[in-house]
Write a structure and sequence with these properties.
Blueprint (H helix, E strand, L loop, with lengths): L2 E2 L5 E4 L18 E8 L2 E6 L2 E9 L3 E3 L2 E4 L6 E4 L3 H22 L3 H23 L4 H21 L7 E2 L2 E2 L7 H16 L6 E12 L6 E10 L4 E2 L4 E5 L15 E8 L7 E11 L14 E11 L12 E4 L1 E3 L8 H7 L5 E3 L5 E10 L2 H7 L1 H6 L2 E3 L15 E11 L11 E8 L21 E3 L10 E8 L10 E9 L7 E10 L11 E6 L1 E2 L9 H5 L17 E10 L6 H7 L8 H7 L5 H6 L1 H14 L1 H18 L9 H11 L5 H14 L8 H8 L1 H19 L4 H19 L8 H12 L4 H4 L5 H13 L10 H14 L2 H4 L1 H20 L4 H22 L1 H28 L6 H24 L2 H9 L4 H19 L9 H25 L7 H16 L10 H11 L2 H16 L11 H8 L4 H7 L1 H14 L3 H16 L5 H14 L6 H25 L6 H18 L2 H17 L3 H13 L7 E2 L8 E2 H18 L3 H17 L3 H20 L7 E7 L10 E6 ...
Parallel strand pairs: 15-22, 36-37
Antiparallel strand pairs: 1-3, 2-3, 2-6, 3-4, 4-5, 7-8, 9-10, 11-15, 11-21, 12-13, 12-14, 12-16, 16-17, 18-21, 19-20, 23-26, 23-31, 24-25, 24-27, 27-28, 28-30, 29-31, 32-33, 34-35, 34-37, 35-40, 37-38, 38-39, 39-40
Length: about 1950
C-alpha cells in the first residue's frame, strides 16, 4: 500500500535506474527527486527538472537529504535545507551545463574554455564545502570565492544578477523592495566600478647580480626615494650576496623578499623611485692582490634606480633587469642616485657592460590583511616587512612603534700628521644607562637580523667623507632613558697589517633629563680624541663631556666634526616639552594655564599617542579646579574631540569611546560640562564670532557622551541622587538649544551656519540620551527640537539641506527603530519630506529617507504586529503617495543629464523612488486601498490619481527602468503592479462606467495592461526550465492574470466598447500573439465582440478588418505569432460566429486574416535564412500579390515591392529587380502632384519620382542584359523630355537608347534553361504547398545543378523519381516531396522569329522572354509493342503548362495556372521527325554554300547520320510501319498524313543528293573516301525507297534558294497542328525528344522525341539498352543514350572562343546539339552506325561554293488538314494573338555605305557569342519526332533569360519556326520591308547620366520589364506590352514635336492628323499611388 511520506521528501540518485518495471521512472546518476509516496522498498515521485512525469524507483537508489516542505499536500514544494550557497551552486551549474554546450556549437571557443575552467573550479570548491572540514575563516573565503565565480559566469552568459547578503541568495519576499533595490544596486555598482585601493604595497624579490668583476661578497640595500623632495620615504631592505652574486641564504626567503608597506596613492608617481645601493666587502682597492692586506672593508660598488610609475605599465610577472652604475669619484657616492635620476652622466658610468641586477618587482593593492588572504603563500613562506619612515597616512590605535632612525651624514677630520688623507671607518654602538652594550639593537635594514654594532663605508683617502648611510635603532622603550649612541672613528691602513687604528669618538644621549627624546633633525657632534680602546670602557667618564656643538659656543671653532640626522618614530615617546608639561601638571601647578593654552599648538600625532593620559590630565584639573580652569579644560577637550574628526586620526575614536566606557572617572564632571555648554549656547545669538562656538557644537556628540557617562557614574556612586536636578539641567539646555534654533536669519548669516553645525551633530546625541531617558522622552526632545526650526526657510537656504540630512540620520538612528518613538517622530519626518518632494528639492536625500522608513516597516511587521505597521503605512500613504507619484513622473520626464556622474545620480534617485513606491504599494492592504479611494471626494481627483498611477506603472515597465539582468527586481515590480491594478480596477468599474464613462482613464488602463503582458521579462518561454519553474512557483503566470482582468473589464464596458474600436484592435492583437495558450483563449474572443459591436454600429466590420491586417504585418515581422496561433484564431472565432446573422461576412474576414497569417509566417520563416534564395523571393511575391489582389493595401503593397527589389539586387537578379520596381512605376503618372517622403524617397513631385524610377529600371535592365525592355522605357522617357523641351536630357536619353541597341548586337547573352518544380506535401509553406511552378534557371545551370540547389533550399525534401502526377497520399503527406524536370519554352512572338534577315542576337531575346507556356514530351507505347518495329505503337504524351505570369517577371518562378495534355500519334511523330531533319539539312547546306561554315564537319556528320541510318533500315522502318496495307486499311483517316510522310521522304532524298553535291565541292582530300562511301550508301538508300531517278526539274542545274534559303516551296506543306487541337503536331524549328529516359535519381526530364528502331546493322544492343518505360524516363539530357546525329551538350569548359565558334560545331561530345538556329533535343531513338565515331574525330574542312539545293516541288496530293471538327476545336481552344514585338524600329533603306552594303550582303548576321554558330542544327533522322516548340530544352547552354545563344538564320527562320497558330493562319509578311541589320556604331554609352530636369531628378538606380497585357489579367505596363501584328511593318516614327500632344495627354484619343501608322504611347493604368 502506498503511504505518503512524512520526512522522506528529497533525495539524490546514487546510481542510474532504467525504469524497466511497470510505471518505472528512469533515473540518471545525480538527478534530484521529490518523493511523494513509499511502499515496500519503493518510492513514488518525480525528477525535479521534469515534474510532469511521475513513476516508481527503488529506495536503495536514493540518498535522502533533509528538506523543507512548503504548501504540504497536492501542490507541495520541497526546498533542500542545505547551505544556500550549495543549493545555488548546484542549480547554476546545471543551467551552465546546457549553455556551455551551446557555446561549443556557436564556436565561441574562448568563453567555452574559460567557462569550463570556472565550472571545474566551482565543483572543486563545492567538494570542499560539502566535506565540512574547513575552518570558519576558510569557509568564509571559499564561499566568497564561489559567489565571485558564480557572478562571473552569470555575467558572461548574460544571466540574471543574483541579490546576495553574506554570500547567500536573498528571497525578495522576505525583505522590503527598497532593501532589495539597495542590494541589487550595490552588486551592480560593485560589478561596474571597482573601488580604487587607497593603500599600496611593493613586493621586492632579489634574484641575483650579474657582473664580470665579482669575487667578493656584496651587500644590497633597497629603499624608496622621493625625487621631488630628495629624501628617502622608507627604511632600507638589506640582502647579503655571496661571491657568485646570489643571496647567501636561498632557503630563507624572508632574507631575499620584502614588502614595502603603506604606500599612499600619492607615492605612485613618476618622481618616486626604488634606489638600490650595492656595497662590496673586501680589499680597499678592487684590483689589489690577496696577500697585500687581510682586512675586510665595506666599499662602494654601484647603484641602480627604477621609477615606481614604470611598474604600473609593465607585466609584473616578468623579472626586471636593472642597470648598475658606478660613480667616477668616491666623493660623489652619497648622491650617486640623485645623479642617475637627474641623468648627470659626467659623474657616473656603467660598472660593467654586463652588470645588472635581476629583481622581481610587483605592486600590490589593498589592505595588508586583505593581502594576507589573497597572497597566503607569500606570507606563509616568509617575507620581511619594510616600513615607511614615520607613521602612515592613517594611524591605527594599538600600533606599537619605537624606532630611532639615524643617518651617518658626513665628517670633517684632520690629517693627523700624515701626508695623505685618512681612510675613515665609523663603528656605531648603543649603550644603556649602565654602559652595557645593547644587543641586536643595530639594524642596517629589514631582511637581516639586528646586530650589536655597525661598521660604515670606508671612503679611500678622504678627510671629508660623506656616507649618507641610514641605520635603524629599535631600542625598547624601557631602556630608552639613559641610553646613548657612541661613534668610534678609525683609520684603516692599506699596509700589510691592514690594522684599524682608533683616533677619536663622539656620542649622543637619546633622552634629555626632562624626559624629552633626542629632537629630530641634523646634529653636529663633537669628536673627542682617543687612541686607546681602554679609555672608552667606562662610559661615565665621557658622558659628562659635551656631545654637541649646538650648545657649546667654545667648541664651535674646532676643525673636526661629525654630522648625523635623527628621526624618531614612536608611539610612546615624545620630543615635545609642552606635552610633558601638561602631563606633569601636578609637579608644576603654576604652568597649568600655559600648558592648557599650548595644547592646541601640539601636533595631533603627539596628542593621540598620549590620548588617555591627556584626557585624565584634563578631567583631573577639572575636578580639582573647575572654577578656575573649567572653561579652558572644556576648550581643550573640544580641541581633542575635533582633532579626532581628522581623517588621519579618525580611527582613534574607538580609543576615546573605550576611554569613556572603561577609564573615565569624572563622576562630577557633568555639572561643569552642562554649565559651560549652556553658557556657549546662550551666547550664540549675541556673539560676533561664531567659529569657536561652532567648534564646540561640532564636538557636542562626545561632550554629551562625557555628560551622560559622568551622570551614570555619579548615580552609581550616590544611588541616584540629584536626578531631578540633572533632568532640569538637561531640559534647560535643550530650551536654550531650541531658542537659538528658532531664530530666523539670512541664509549666509553666522547664526544660520551655527544652526547647521548643530543639526549635523544632533542625531549622534540620541543614543546617549537613551541611556538615561525613556524612548518617548528622547523622541519628545527630538520632535520639539526639530519642530523649533523656522518653517519659512527659503529654498536656497543651506539650512534646508542640513535639516534634511538631520532627518536622514534620525530615521537611520536607533531611536527611530523603536515603534514607540516612531509614532512620535513620523509626523515631523513626513511633514519635512512632503515639503521637499513637493518642491522637487534634495531628491536624493528624500529618497534615502523614504527608503529607510519603508525598509523598517517590513522588519517591524514580523515583530510588532500588523496594527502598528498598518497605522504607519496609512500615514505614509496619506502624506506621500500622491507626491511620490508626481515626483517619479517629474524626474522620468526630465531630459537626461549629459555628464556621467550626473546621469548616474539621476538614475539612482529614480530607482530609489521607484523602489519606495513599490515597497509602499506592497505594504498596502484592502483597508488602505479603501481609505485611499474614499479620500477622493470628487470624480476628477480620482480620475487624475488613476491616470497618474497608470502612467507611473507604464514607466516602471519600461526596459530601461532597470538594468537588463535585474530580472528579480522586474518580477517583484510586476507582482506589485498587477496586485495594485486588481484593486484599482474595481474603482474604475464603479466610478467611470455608464453615465460617468471616461475614455481617457479606460484607455490608459487598457494600454497599461497590454504593455504589461508584452514586456520581455514576463515571456516565460524564453526562460531556462529551472528559471521558469522558479518564477511560476513564486508568482504564477502574471500574463494570464492580467489577460483575464482585461477580458473582465472589457465585458463590463457594454456599449462603450465602440469607443475602443478600432483603437484597441492592434494592442489586443499584440496580446493574443503572446505564445501562452490560456492567454490566447481568453483574449481572442474579444475580436468576435469587436466584430459584433462594429456590425451593430455600421453594418459591417471594415474597420476591424483593416486594423487587424495593418497590425498583423508589423507584429509578425517582429517575430510574434506562430502556426498554433493561426489555427487557434481561426477555430475560436469561427466557433464564436456560428450563430451570428453576419456569419458569412465574418467567415470571409477570418479566412482573409488567416490567409494573411499563413503568408506572413512563411515570409518570416524564409527571412530567417541567411542567403537570398528562391524561397525568400517566392514568399515575398506571394505576400505582395496578396496585399494587391485580395487586400488592396497600396502602402503595404509598395513596401513589399521594395523589399522584393532589395532581395533581387542582393541575389543579382537584375531583370527581376527591374520588373519588380516597375510595379511601383506603373502606379505613378507623369504629373506634378507632390508626393510625401516615403521609404528612401525624398519629398518630390510625381514626375520626378517616376523619372527616377525609369532611370533606375533602365539601369537594371541593362545590368540584366534585357536591353529591349530598357529601350522601350528610354523612348517613353525621351518623349517626356521632348514634351518639356529638355533637349539636354533628351540627347542623353537617345544616346543611352543607341548604346542599348549596340549592346544587343555586340554582346553575348546566354540562353536560360527552364524547369518545372512540383512542391507536394503539407510540410511546405502555404505559398508552395501542393503547387507546381516553372523556374528560370541561373546562368550555366543544368538540371542536376538546379535539382541540387532546390534540395539545398529544402534540405528535408524528398526528390521524386518519376514525372507522373502524384496522388492524394502525396498531397496530404506530412513531408516534403520535390518533382523536378526540364521543360521547353513556347515563344509568344513568332513574327520576329520567322522573319528572314533578323540577326540571331535579336531573335534570341524573343525565344526566351515573354514566355507564358512551356512544353514537356513523354514517350509511351499504346497497345501491343512490336518487337520488330516498335515505332508502330510509340506515342508521345505532350504536356503544355501555362503560367499565371510570363517569364521573366518579378520572380524567377511562377505558378502553373493551366495544364493541358495531348497525345501525338506514331505517324504524326514520324512526320515531325523527318520534316525537322529536312529543315536541318537545308540549313546546313545553305550555310555551306554561302561559306558561313569554317568547318564542313557538321554537314558531313549530318549526311552520314541520315544516309547511314536510312541504309541500315531507318526510313524503311517507317515504310514497314505506315505504308503497309494493314495500316492503311485500319487507319483510313491517316491517308493524307501517309502521303505527306511519303513526300517528305522523297524530299529528304532530293536534299541529300544536292547535299552530297555541295559536300563534294568542299570536302577535304583526306575525307574523299568517306564522301565516296556516302555516295554509294545514298544509292542504296534510293533503291530501298524505290527511287530510281528524280524528275527532270530536279536533275537540272542547281538553282539558289530564294533569299539564300530553301524556303521557296515551304508553303506547300501547311500542316501545322497545335497541341491544343488534340493529337496534333506543329512543325517547329526545335525538335523535342520523345523517347529519352529519365534516370532514377533525377526528377526532371527535357522534351523527348520518338525515333525509328535500329536495323540489324545498327547498334545491336539498342533495343535492350534503351527501353521506353515510365520507370526509365528520368534521364537528364546528358545521360540519354543518343546517336551521333545529335551531338552532346557542350560542356562550358569546351566552348571555343567566338572567332572559332562562328562556323564550327564542336565535336568533342557526340551528343552535342547544334547551338545555333535550331536546337534539337537529343534522342535515343535513332538509327546509328558504328562508324559515326570516326566522323566525330575528323578534321574541319574548307569552305567551297557548290550549287544550292533545289526548292521542293509543291505538294499536289498532300495538302491535307484535320477534319472540320478537330479544326474547329483547334481554333477555339486557346487562341494566341499574333503579335509583332517592335524591338527594332523600322529604319530607312541604306543609302550606299560600303560597310552597310557589305553587311547587307551577308545572308546571316555573324554571331558574336561563343555559344552561337551560324550553322543550322542537324535535322533529325526520319526516326525522330520533333516538338512543336520553337526551341528545345536541351541543356546545351544556359544563360540569361533575356538572351539566347542559339538563333535562327535568315534563310531558315520561316520554316524553322513552328507556331502555336492553326495551320494556314499566318498573316502575310513582307520580308523585304524589314529593315536591314542595325549599325554597330555605338552612339553613346549607357552610363551617361542625363541632365535632371530642374536639377531635382534623382540619379538612375534600377529597372523593370512589361509583359503582354492582353495575354493575362495580371496588371502589366502597356509600354512593354507586345502590340498586335501589323500587315505592314510600322513606318518611321515622326519627329518628337509631332507627338507632343499625345505624350502629354496620355488619356486622350490620338489626334486625327497624326499618322495612323505611328505607334502612340499607351496610357498608363489610372490607379495612381499616393506614395
Amino acid at each position: 500500500m502506498w503511504i505518503p511520506t512524512e520526512n522522506e521528501k528529497y533525495g539524490v540518485v546514487l546510481a542510474s535506474f532504467r525504469g524497466t518495471v511497470q510505471h518505472g521512472l528512469p533515473l540518471e546518476i545525480g538527478d534530484t527527486v521529490q518523493i511523494l509516496e513509499k511502499c515496500e522498498g519503493w518510492y513514488r515521485g518525480f525528477i525535479l527538472k521534469n515534474p510532469n512525469t511521475k513513476g516508481i524507483f527503488p529506495c536503495s537508489y536514493i540518498h535522502l537529504k533533509s528538506a523543507q516542505v512548503k504548501n504540504k499536500g497536492q501542490f507541495e514544494t520541497v526546498i533542500p535545507t542545505e547551505d544556500s550557497v550549495i543549493t545555488e551552486m548546484t542549480s547554476t551549474l546545471r543551467d551552465w551545463g546546457v549553455m556551455w554546450k551551446q557555446l561549443y556549437v556557436k564556436n565561441e571557443g574562448d568563453l567555452f574554455h574559460r567557462l569550463w575552467h570556472v565550472m571545474n573550479e566551482i565543483l572543486d570548491l563545492r567538494r570542499q564545502v560539502l566535506v565540512g572540514h574547513l575552518t570558519h575563516d576558510r569557509m568564509r573565503d571559499v564561499k566568497q570565492h564561489i559567489t565571485a565565480r558564480l557572478d562571473w559566469g552569470n555575467e558572461h552568459l548574460c544571466l540574471d544578477l543574483v541579490p546576495r547578503r553574506e554570500f547567500s541568495m536573498v528571497d525578495p519576499d522576505e525583505i522590503s523592495v527598497t532593501e532589495l533595490y539597495r542590494l541589487m544596486e550595490h552588486r551592480h555598482r560593485k560589478k561596474d566600478i571597482p573601488a580604487p585601493a587607497s593603500t599600496h604595497h611593493l613586493f621586492v624579490h632579489m634574484k641575483s647580480l650579474m657582473s664580470a668583476n665579482l669575487g667578493e661578497e656584496l651587500e644590497v640595500f633597497f629603499h624608496i626615494y622621493d625625487g621631488r623632495e630628495n629624501r628617502p620615504l622608507s627604511e632600507r631592505f638589506f640582502v647579503r650576496l655571496n661571491k657568485s652574486g646570489v643571496p647567501k641564504s636561498p632557503e630563507k626567503t624572508e632574507r631575499q623578499c620584502t614588502l614595502f608597506v603603506d604606500l599612499g596613492s600619492s607615492d605612485l608617481r613618476k618622481d618616486v623611485y626604488i634606489v638600490v645601493h650595492i656595497i662590496r666587502i673586501g680589499r680597499m682597492g678592487a684590483g689589489e692582490k690577496k696577500n697585500v692586506c687581510s682586512a675586510q672593508y665595506r666599499r662602494p660598488f654601484g647603484c641602480a634606480v627604477v621609477s615606481i610609475a614604470d611598474l604600473l605599465t609593465v607585466d609584473s610577472k616578468e623579472d626586471h633587469h636593472l642597470k648598475v652604475y658606478a660613480c667616477n669619484t668616491e666623493t660623489e657616492w652619497y648622491q650617486i642616485h640623485e645623479n642617475i635620476i637627474k641623468k648627470v652622466n659626467s659623474r657616473y658610468n656603467l660598472s660593467g657592460s654586463n652588470s645588472g641586477l635581476a629583481v622581481s618587482l610587483q605592486l600590490l593593492h589593498g589592505d595588508i590583511e586583505q593581502l594576507r588572504r589573497e597572497y597566503m603563500v607569500l606570507f606563509t613562506r616568509g617575507v620581511s616587512i619594510t616600513r615607511k619612515l614615520g607613521f602612515s597616512d592613517v594611524i591605527m590605535p594599538g600600533e606599537m612603534r619605537n624606532d630611532l632612525y639615524m643617518t651617518l651624514e658626513k665628517g670633517e677630520f684632520e690629517k693627523g700628521g700624515k701626508s695623505v688623507a685618512r681612510n675613515v671607518e665609523i663603528t656605531v654602538y648603543v649603550l644603556d644607562a649602565d654602559g652595557l652594550l645593547l644587543k641586536s639593537c643595530m639594524a642596517a635594514g629589514s631582511g637581516e637580523p639586528g646586530a650589536d654594532q655597525y661598521h660604515s663605508l670606508v671612503l679611500y683617502h678622504n678627510n671629508s667623507p660623506r656616507w649618507a648611510e641610514q641605520i635603524k635603532l629599535p631600542i625598547p622603550v624601557d631602556v630608552f632613558r639613559g641610553s646613548h649612541v657612541r661613534f668610534e672613528f678609525r683609520h684603516c691602513s692599506t699596509k700589510d697589517k691592514g690594522e684599524k687604528k682608533l683616533f677619536g669618538y663622539c656620542f649622543v644621549p637619546l633622552m634629555q633629563e626632562d624626559g624629552r627624546t633626542l629632537p629630530d633633525g641634523t646634529h653636529e657632534l663633537i669628536i673627542h680624541k682617543c687612541e686607546e680602546n681602554a679609555n672608552l670602557a667606562d662610559c661615565s667618564r665621557y658622558l659628562k663631556l659635551p656631545f654637541s656643538k649646538a650648545n657649546n659656543q667654545s667648541l664651535k671653532g674646532t676643525k673636526e666634526s661629525f654630522w648625523i640626522t635623527s628621526y624618531l618614530c614612536s608611539t610612546k615617546l615624545t620630543q615635545n616639552g609642552d606635552m610633558l608639561d601638561l602631563l606633569k601638571w601636578r609637579a608644576h601647578p603654576e604652568r597649568i594655564n600655559d600648558s592648557l593654552s599650548k595644547l592646541k599648538e601640539i601636533d595631533g600625532s603627539e596628542i593621540v599617542k598620549f590620548l588617555q593620559d591627556t584626557l585624565d590630565t584634563l578631567f583631573g584639573i577639572l575636578d580639582e579646579s573647575s572654577q578656575r580652569y573649567g572653561l579652558k579644560v572644556f576648550d581643550s577637550l573640544v580641541h581633542i574631540i575635533n582633532l579626532l574628526q581628522d581623517s588621519k586620526f579618525q580611527h582613534f575614536k574607538p580609543v576615546m569611546d573605550t576611554y569613556i566606557e572603561s577609564h573615565f572617572a569624572g563622576a562630577l564632571s557633568y555639572r561643569d560640562l552642562i554649565k559651560v555648554l549652556k553658557w556657549y549656547v546662550d551666547r550664540i545669538i549675541d556673539a560676533d564670532h561664531q567659529d569657536h562656538i561652532q567648534q564646540v557644537l561640532k564636538a557636542s556628540e562626545y561632550i554629551f557622551k562625557y555628560i551622560i557617562q559622568s551622570r551614570r557614574l555619579f548615580s552609581l556612586a550616590t544611588g541616584g541622587q540629584n536626578e531631578d536636578e540633572f533632568r532640569v539641567c538637561i531640559h534647560e539646555l535643550f530650551m536654550s538649544i531650541r531658542f537659538f534654533l528658532s531664530q530666523e536669519n539670512k541664509g549666509t548669516s553666522p547664526v544660520t551656519q551655527t544652526q547647521a553645525v548643530f543639526l549635523r551633530t544632533f542625531p549622534a546625541i540620541y543614543g546617549e540620551l537613551l541611556k538615561i531617558f525613556t524612548v518617548r522622552e528622547v523622541a519628545g526632545f527630538v520632535r520639539e527640537t526639530l519642530g523649533s526650526l523656522p518653517a519659512t526657510a527659503h529654498a536656497e537656504c543651506p539650512l534646508e539641506a542640513v535639516k534634511l540630512q538631520c532627518i536622514v540620520k534620525t530615521v537611520e538612528s536607533q531611536l527611530y527603530i523603536n515603534p514607540e518613538s516612531r509614532c512620535v517622530l513620523l509626523p515631523v519626518v513626513l511633514r519635512l519630506l512632503h515639503a521637499h518632494m513637493q518642491e522637487q528639492r534634495d531628491l536624493v536625500t528624500c529618497a534615502r529617507i523614504l527608503t529607510s522608513m519603508l525598509s523598517l516597516i517590513v522588519k517591524e511587521e514580523s515583530t510588532t504586529g500588523e496594527a502598528v505597521v498598518s497605522e504607519e503605512v496609512e500615514l505614509i500613504v496619506d502624506s506621500l503617495l500622491g507626491v511620490l507619484l508626481r515626483t517619479i513622473l517629474e524626474i522620468t520626464n526630465r531630459p537626461q543629464p549629459t555628464g556621467g556622474a550626473l546621469r548616474l545620480q539621476f538614475q539612482d534617485v529614480t530607482g530609489e523612488f521607484v523602489a519606495c513606491l513599490l515597497a509602499l504599494l506592497r505594504q498596502m492592504s484592502d483597508k488602505h486601498y479603501q481609505k485611499l479611494l474614499q479620500k477622493f471626494t470628487n470624480k476628477d481627483d480620482l480620475r487624475d490619481f488613476l491616470l497618474q498611477i497608470f502612467t507611473v506603472f507604464r514607466i516602471l515597465i519600461r526596459p530601461e527602468m532597470f538594468p537588463k539582468d535585474w530580472t528579480v527586481m522586474r518580477l517583484v515590480t510586476n507582482n506589485v503592479i498587477i496586485t495594485t491594478v486588481l484593486y484599482l480596477s474595481d474603482a474604475l468599474r464603479k466610478n467611470f462606467l455608464n453615465d460617468n464613462f471616461d475614455y481617457k482613464v479606460w484607455d490608459s488602463y487598457f494600454y497599461l495592461s497590454v504593455i504589461f503582458i508584452n514586456q520581455p521579462c514576463l515571456q516565460l518561454e524564453s526562460f531556462s526550465p529551472s528559471k521558469r519553474k522558479r518564477t511560476l512557483e513564486k508568482y504564477g503566470d502574471m500574463r494570464v492574470m492580467m489577460g483575464c482582468e482585461i477580458f473582465s473589464m472589457w465585458q463590463n464596458l457594454g456599449e462603450h466598447k465602440l469607443n475602443f474600436i478600432p483603437a484597441m484592435i492592434g494592442p489586443f492583437l499584440e496580446v493574443t500573439l503572446v505564445p501562452q495558450p490560456d492567454l490566447r483563449n481568453v483574449m481572442i474572443p474579444i475580436f468576435h465582440d469587436m466584430m459584433d459591436w462594429e456590425q451593430r454600429r455600421s453594418g459591417n466590420f471594415k474597420q476591424v478588418e483593416a486594423k487587424l491586417i495593418d497590425k498583423l504585418d508589423s507584429l509578425m515581422s517582429e517575430g510574434k505569432g506562430d502556426e498554433t496561433y493561426r489555427e487557434l484564431f481561426n477555430s475560436i472565432l469561427l466557433k464564436k460566429i456560428e450563430r451570428e446573422t453576419w456569419r458569412e461576412s465574418g467567415i470571409s474576414l477570418i479566412a482573409t486574416v488567416t490567409r494573411l497569417m499563413e503568408r506572413l509566417l512563411d515570409y518570416r520563416d524564409c527571412m530567417k535564412l541567411g542567403e537570398v534564395d528562391g524561397k525568400k523571393i517566392g514568399c515575398t511575391v506571394s505576400l505582395l500579390n496578396f496585399y494587391k489582389t485580395e487586400l488592396n493595401k497600396e502602402e503595404m503593397y509598395i513596401r513589399y515591392i521594395h523589399k522584393l527589389y532589395d532581395l533581387h539586387l542582393k541575389a543579382q537578379n537584375y531583370t527581376e529587380a527591374s520588373y519588380t520596381l516597375l510595379l511601383y512605376d506603373e502606379l505613378l503618372e507623369w504629373s506634378e502632384r507632390p508626393l510625401r517622403e516615403f521609404l528612401n524617397y525624398p519629398m518630390q513631385s510625381e514626375w520626378q519620382r517616376k523619372e527616377y524610377l525609369h532611370l533606375t529600371i533602365v539601369q537594371n535592365f541593362d545590368r540584366g542584359k534585357c536591353w529591349e525592355n530598357g529601350i522601350i522605357l528610354c523612348r517613353e522617357l525621351a518623349d517626356q523630355y521632348e514634351s518639356y523641351y529638355d533637349y539636354r536630357n533628351l540627347s542623353k536619353m537617345r544616346m543611352m537608347e543607341a548604346s542599348l541597341y549596340d549592346k544587343i548586337m555586340d554582346q553575348q547573352r546566354l540562353e536560360p534553361e527552364f524547369f518545372r518544380v512540383g512542391f507536394y506535401g503539407k510540410k511546405f509553406p502555404f505559398f508552395l504547398r501542393n503547387k507546381e511552378f516553372v523556374c528560370r534557371g541561373h546562368d550555366y545551370e543544368r538540371l542536376e545543378a538546379f535539382q541540387q540547389r532546390m534540395l539545398n533550399e529544402f534540405p528535408h525534401a524528398i526528390a521524386m523519381q518519376h514525372v507522373n502526377q502524384p496522388d492524394q497520399t502525396i498531397y496530404q503527406a506530412e513531408a516534403q516531396y520535390l518533382q523536378i524536370y526540364a521543360v521547353s519554352p513556347i515563344p509568344e512572338s513568332q513574327d520576329v522569329l520567322q522573319r528572314d534577315g533578323v540577326p540571331d542576337n535579336i531573335k534570341s531575346f524573343y525565344k526566351f522572354n515573354h514566355i507564358w507556356r512551356f512544353r514537356y514530351d513523354r514517350p509511351f507505347h499504346k497497345g501491343t509493342k512490336d518487337k520488330e518495329n516498335e515505332f508502330k505503337s510509340l506515342w508521345v504524351e505532350r504536356t503544355t503548362l501555362t503560367l499565371v505570369q510570363s517569364l521573366p517577371g518579378i520572380s524567377r518562378w511562377f505558378e502553373v495556372e493551366k495544364r493541358e495534355l495531348v497525345e501525338v500519334s506514331p505517324l504524326e511523330n514520324a512526320i515531325e521527325v523527318i520534316e525537322n531533319k529536312n529543315l536541318q539539312l537545308r540549313t546546313l547546306i545553305t550555310q555551306c554554300q554561302n561559306r558561313q561554315m569554317q568547318n564542313i564537319n557538321p554537314l558531313t556528320m549530318c549526311l552520314n547520320g541520315v544516309i547511314d541510318a536510312a541504309v541500315n533500315g531507318g526510313l524503311a522502318r517507317y515504310q514497314e510501319a505506315f505504308f503497309v496495307k494493314d495500316y492503311i486499311l485500319n487507319h483510313p483517316e491517316d491517308g493524307d498524313k501517309i502521303g505527306q510522310l511519303r513526300e517528305l521522304m522523297f524530299e529528304q532524298a532530293r536534299i541529300l543528293e544536292y547535299g552530297l553535291a555541295v559536300h563534294e565541292k568542299f570536302v577535304p582530300q583526306d575525307m574523299r573516301p568517306l564522301h565516296k562511301k556516302l555516295v554509294d550508301q545514298f544509292h542504296l538508300m534510293k533503291s530501298s525507297l524505290g527511287i530510281q531517278e528524280f524528275p527532270a526539274y530536279v536533275r537540272a542545274s542547281p538553282v539558289h534558294f530564294t533569299n539564300g534559303s530553301p524556303r521557296a516551296c515551304r508553303n506547300s506543306v501547311p500542316s501545322i497542328i497545335s497541341p491544343e487541337g488534340g493529337r496534333g503536331i506543329a512543325r517547329r524549328s526545335g525538335p523535342s525528344p520523345s523517347t529519352s529516359s529519365l534516370s532514377s535519381n533525377h526528377s526532371a526530364s527535357p522534351n523527348v522525341t520518338s525515333s525509328a528502331p535500329s536495323s540489324a546493322r545498327g547498334s545491336p544492343q539498342m533495343a535492350d539498352k534503351h527501353k521506353h518505360s515510365r520507370d526509365n524516363s528520368c534521364l537528364s539530357p546528358r545521360e540519354r543514350p543518343v546517336s551521333a546525329i545529335f551531338p552532346n551538350p557542350l560542356d562550358p569548359t569546351q566552348r571555343a572562343p567566338p572567332h572559332q565558334i562562328d562556323n564550327t560545331l564542336p565535336r568533342s561530345d557526340p551528343n552535342l546539339s547544334a547551338p545555333d538556329k535550331v536546337r534539337p533535343t537529343p534522342s535515343s531513338w535513332s538509327l546509328d552506325s558504328a562508324r559515326e565515331g570516326t566522323l566525330h574525330s575528323s578534321d574541319p574542312v574548307g569552305r567551297f561554293l557548290v550549287p544550292p539545293v533545289p526548292p521542293r516541288p509543291p505538294y499536289s496530293a498532300c495538302s491535307w488538314s484535320l477534319d472540320s471538327a478537330r479544326e474547329s476545336t483547334l481554333h477555339s481552344s486557346d487562341p494566341v494573338g499574333r503579335f509583332l514585338v517592335p524591338p527594332v524600329p523600322p529604319r530607312p533603306p541604306y543609302s550606299g555605305s560600303s560597310a552597310k552594303n557589305m553587311r547587307s550582303q551577308s545572308p546571316v548576321h555573324v554571331s558574336r557569342s561563343p555559344q552561337k554558330s551560324t550553322v543550322p542544327p542537324f535535322t533529325p533522322s526520319p526516326t525522330e519526332c520533333h516538338t512543336t516548340g520553337l526551341v528545345s530544352n536541351s541543356p546545351v547552354l544556359s544563360g540569361s533569360y533575356s538572351s539566347g545563344i542559339s538563333s535562327l538564320s535568315r534563310c531558315s527562320v520561316s520554316e524553322a519556326s513552328g507556331t502555336e497558330m492553326p495551320a494556314g493562319d499566318h498573316p502575310p509578311i513582307h520580308v523585304t520591308s524589314l529593315p536591314p541589320p542595325p549599325s554597330t556604331l555605338a552612339l553613346h554609352p549607357l552610363d551617361t547620366e542625363p541632365i535632371r530636369r530642374e536639377n531635382k531628378t534623382p540619379p538612375p538606380y534600377s529597372v523593370y520589364e512589361r509583359n503582354n497585357p492582353t495575354r493575362r489579367p495580371v496588371p502589366l505596363p502597356h509600354s512593354l506590352s507586345i502590340p498586335p501584328p501589323q500587315v505592314d511593318p510600322p513606318a518611321l516614327p515622326p519627329k518628337p514635336h509631332q507627338l507632343r500632344t499625345g505624350s502629354m495627354k496620355l488619356d486622350s484619343a490620338p489626334s486625327s492628323s497624326a499618322d495612323p501608322r505611328v505607334p502612340r504611347p499607351r496610357p498608363l493604368p489610372r490607379k495612381v499611388s499616393q506614395l
